[in-house]
């Protein structure tokens, strides 16, 4: 029986007998109730993946034998950085999850003026680790072998002042510029800035515009931040990426 895909943060070598980490062993052994002889796919984020076969299942310990490396990727040629105003609670989880499924290259969480989330010290570390795990799970589900980087949160003003992009967009409901009017080569690096609940302030939009970002509208309706992110990334992949 095939058990799906699993990320392992360790070197993988054909012919190797590997003990899955605690998370993987629990998922395969307890959640899926795998059996010796079942197969699964492992990847470690360095490119490609490996078919593997379960050879041992204990209460908290699973061992697999690794097969031949498959050099296969489904990465988008359009490398999108999502600069996202941090949303509250599960909304940010959904944003990270769906952004990874839609092929985003990396995610830059931003502390904006209207951001209602305050992160520092240990709490920031925990949230960052959590978002990274959300990204890993999304890669396991979607078939991606390269895990997008989730950067440590930064204040919006300091980030935008030092930002340099080949193609940059900032969402604003007060403009009439649409993606259908833009020209972006499919192999480009693109950055899209999206506000949290309440959106970006006019000053924040202006800061981005002054750094070369083009203001962008997604249409006549005001979207929630998580909806705006999904809509923007989907549209970019349709117009310039690999959705078709």
Describe the structure.
31% of the residues lie in helices and 24% in strands. It has 244 residues and is α/β, with parallel strands linked by helices. The protein folds into 2 domains: 2-66, Ribosomal Protein L25, Chain P; 79-240, Alpha/beta knot (3-Layer(aba) Sandwich). The strands form 2 sheets. Strands 6, 7, 8, 9, 10, 11 and 12 form a 7-stranded parallel beta sheet that branches. The chain has a 5-stranded mixed beta sheet with strand order 1-3-4-5-2. Helix 3 (121-142) links the parallel strand 7 and strand 8 (149-150). Helix 2 runs parallel beside helix 3 (121-142) and helix 2 packs parallel to helix 6 (225-240). The radius of gyration is 20 Å and the shape is elongated. The mean pLDDT is 92.
Structural descriptors:
5-stranded mixed sheet; 244 residues; alpha/beta; 6 helices; 7-stranded parallel sheet; Alpha/beta knot; Ribosomal Protein L25, Chain P; elongated
Summarize this, please?
The chain is α/β, with parallel strands linked by helices.
Share of helix among residues? 25-40%
Count, helices: 6
Count the E strands.
12
Largest sheet: 7 strands, parallel
What integer value in Å does the Rg equal? 20 Å
Tell me the CATH superfamily of the largest domain. SPOUT methyltransferase, trefoil knot domain
CATH topology of the largest domain: Alpha/beta knot
Integer tally of domains: 2
Mean of all residue-level pLDDT scores: 92
Spans of at least 5 consecutive residues whose pLDDT stays below 50 are: none
User: Into which percentage range does the β-strand content fall?
Assistant: 15-25%
